[in-house]
Amino acid sequence: ETGVTQTPRHLVMGMTNKKSLKCEQHLGHNAMYWYKQSAKKPLELMFVYNFKEQTENNSVPSRFSPECPNSSHLFLHLHTLQPEDSALYLCASSQVGTGSTEAFFGQGTRLTVV
Amino acid sequence: SQQGEEDPQALSIQEGENATMNCSYKTSINNLQWYRQNSGRGLVHLILIRSNEREKHSGRLRVTLDTSKKSSSLLITASRAADTASYFCARGTSGTYKYIFGTGTRLKVLA
């Protein structure tokens, strides 16, 4: 248990569906992240939030919409996805201060788009 | 690409042997971190080495950093079947809080 909880663990959705991934961290961190992990590709950083403000959007398609209502919760809203969006979506958190520190990851949501 | 590159991509060894994985990167860093991922799970932080450090130990793990060559290595000594996992390096840069990961090394330790 890393202190970062993601739900659901598995999700199958059609291309016309709308769903949301949820991430919650119990570590008191001030930064949260969404990563996408596809087979045989590096982890792709999608979004970064620092103190609830989005500070990074790595050219992610608009069918992925993040939301960070407070420093403990992070959502990824999904709509009209494509089969190539099937992947493991990982949430992470860290404490940003003087210099970088380690990131704590959730167990991920395995997303399958059919 | 800003991403690091680990090599080898895959490594298979016998239990009790040492495993060495390498990581190269292209831009300057504040620190370099190593993570482990069991199949289909989240990543777990193993060790962080700062840019002014050359070597660091944690249990059976030994990490070295050569900033002149922009490379790092992770050594796992006396490997166990439970060490079977993918290992990733991640660059940490000062002034930002992004963690840029490489493609990982898949380690298989045979009992």
Descriptive overview:
The complex is a heterodimer of chains A (about 110) and B (about 110). Chain A is mostly beta strands and about 110 residues long. In chain A, about 0% of the residues lie in helices and about 55% in strands. Chain A has strands spanning about 5, 10-15, 20-25, 30-35, 45-50, 55, 65-70, 75-80, 85-95, 105, 110-114. Chain A is globular and about 40 Å long. Chain B is an all-beta fold and about 110 residues long. In chain B, the strands form two sheets. In chain B, strands 2, 4, 5, 9, 10 and 11 form a six-stranded mixed beta sheet that branches. A five-stranded antiparallel beta sheet of chain B has the order 1-3-8-7-6, with no helix packed on it. Chain B has strands spanning about 5, 10-15, 20-25, 30-35, 45-50, 55-60, 60-65, 70-75, 85-90, 100, 105-110. In chain B, strand 4 (about 30-35) and strand 5 (about 45-50) form a beta hairpin. The mean pLDDT of chain B is about 90. Helices cover about 0% and strands about 55% of the residues of chain B.
Number-wise, the strands of chain A total 11
- How much beta of chain A, percentage-wise? over 45%
Shape of chain B: globular
Query: What characteristic shape of chain A results from the CA principal axes?
Result: globular
Poorly predicted tracts of residues of chain A: none
Helix-strand string of chain A: EEEEEEEEEEE
Q: What is the end-to-end distance of chain B?
A: 37 Å
The total strand number of chain B stands at 11
Major sheet of chain A, described briefly? 7 strands, mixed
> What portion of residues of chain A is helical?
under 10%
Oligomer: heterodimer
Q: How large, in whole angstroms, is the Cα Rg of chain B?
A: 13 Å
Helical fraction of chain B equals under 10%
